[in-house]
Design brief:
Layout lengths: L4 H22 L5 E5 L3 E6 L8 E6 L24 E3 L1 E3 L2 H18 L2 E3 L2 E3 L6 E2 L1 H4 L2 H7 L5 E3 L11 E6 L4 H15 L1 E7 L14 H11 L6 H17 L8 E4 L2 H4 L6 E2 L2 E2 L4 H11 L7 E3 L9 H6 L3 E2 L1 H4 L6 H4 L3 H14 L2 E4 L4 H13 L5 E3 L5 E5 H4 L5 H4 L2
Parallel strand pairs: 4-6, 4-11, 5-7, 6-9, 10-11, 12-15, 12-17, 15-16
Antiparallel strand pairs: 1-19, 2-3, 7-8, 13-14, 18-19
Length: 405
């Protein structure tokens, strides 16, 4: 009996997503800089390059930094491509950003046409068209003159594409060795990005054309489609209304119980990869936040394991409490792709972001916050007397600082 190639691809993508999910917890821990307990937090560090102690003071609710601007090289228009790069976006928006950036970089380097991708959730049955999650018009317009875009995948007449796995943030030599020889023969390649590391530290960035294309893909292509954006913004407005006594400020915490329960989520070599609701609550209390502080959790529905956090901060909410009533079906129908996109947007736009879980969600939320000047990102530690400011910000070692200036 003949096997449908699409079934083989779906199985391959499902396995890829499984290993990504496991590695998201197992392979990274938080990099932090200690901050001492007080209403105004004192940050003190000794950089590895010298012995000069630097100090800065930040209030709990500080003003945003100035917006950063693209500092990558301007990409000149290229001749229309003679082949196609395709891909399927998998997992949540934190993975989508990297996957899109990889595809833009490869398509630009090869002079290929990039086909607007489809999207697959953690279940092989959960599939979306690109335009159901992201604004397809902005995506196409932001890439004009950089890569040719094919909006409708059904119009592509090329044969079944060859599947090529590449590490995320591919360098030109990787494209030359792994992609170009196959593309030259087949003229149709389906990219599958894998993640050797789940952090976004600066490494090997030389501002060549492929790096500039990656930066554009990472920081200038993906916006929520209008209806989903409206839902996310309505939730933010409700959170600000709930905390109007403190000038509308709120904290977003990435705390998902299903990830906390994974076997790899534990203390290793004195470093935490994740923190429980109780640990997060005690950290925020030590830092100086009052019981009136409004907190948003990425957990969709309330669970008794969250009670210790609510005991300290009664104004703690999950999606079911702040989502518009007419959109409650997103939770009831467990539409994880839409919910994760909403979470990513809220965590990017909150006044303060606190990750309870280390991984790519944390790293890419930080990148988008740096771009927008929202650098108040506090990371708890296992030390019972201190908390931390993300080293991505304090050391300016996030990829965003190479792409934006």
């Amino acid at each position: 009996m003949a096997v449908d190639p699409r079934q083989i691809l779906a199985g391959f993508l499902t396995l890829t997503m499984f290993f990504m999910l496991v590695n998201m917890i197992k392979r990274d821990h938080f990099d932090t800089i200690e901050i001492k307990q007080s209403q105004t937090i004192t940050i003190s560090e000794k950089p590895s390059t010298n012995n000069i102690e630097t100090e800065s003071r930040i209030s709990l609710w500080k003003e945003n930094d100035p917006l950063l601007r693209p500092c990558w090289s301007k990409l000149q228009p290229k001749e229309k491509g003679k082949g196609y790069i395709t891909l399927t976006l998998i997992n949540g928006p934190h993975y989508h950003l990297s996957q899109i950036a990889d595809a833009v970089a490869v398509a630009r380097y090869l002079g290929a046409t990039l086909v607007v991708p489809d999207i697959q959730g953690t279940s092989s049955r959960e599939k979306r068209k690109f335009g159901e999650i992201y604004d397809i018009d902005k995506f196409v317009n932001n890439l004009v003159g950089v890569v040719e875009i094919a909006r409708d995948p059904t119009t592509i007449t090329a044969g079944i594409p060859a599947i090529v796995r590449i590490p995320t943030r591919p360098r030109h030599d990787v494209i030359d060795e792994r992609v170009e020889p196959i593309f030259r023969v087949t003229r149709s390649v389906r990219l599958v990005s894998y993640f050797p590391s789940l952090n976004m530290k600066i490494r090997g960035f030389q501002k060549r054309e492929v790096d500039s294309a990656f930066c554009l893909g990472m920081f200038g292509t993906l916006d929520l489609q209008p209806e989903l954006l409206t839902v996310a913004d309505q939730m933010i407005q409700k959170l600000r209304y709930l905390t109007r006594k403190s000038d509308g400020h709120f904290i977003a915490i990435d705390l998902r119980l299903n990830l906390l329960q994974l076997k790899g989520c534990k203390v290793t070599s004195g470093r935490n990869r994740c923190f429980s609701a109780q640990e997060i609550g005690k950290f925020l209390q030590r830092t100086g936040f009052t019981s009136e502080t409004v907190i948003y959790l990425t957990q969709s529905k309330w669970h008794k394991e969250l009670d210790p956090l609510k005991a300290i901060f009664p104004r703690t909410y999950t999606k079911e409490s702040v989502i518009p009533a007419e959109k409650m079906d997103l939770i009831l129908d467990r539409k994880s792709l839409e919910l994760e996109a909403i979470d990513f947007h809220i965590c990017t736009h909150s006044d303060i972001f606190v990750p309870a879980i280390s991984g790519l969600f944390y790293a890419n939320v930080v990148g988008q916050r740096i771009a927008a000047g929202r650098t108040q990102i506090l990371v708890p530690t296992g030390n019972p007397t201190s908390g931390s400011l993300s080293r991505y910000v304090s050391d300016k070692n996030h990829l965003a600082y190479s792409c934006l200036c």
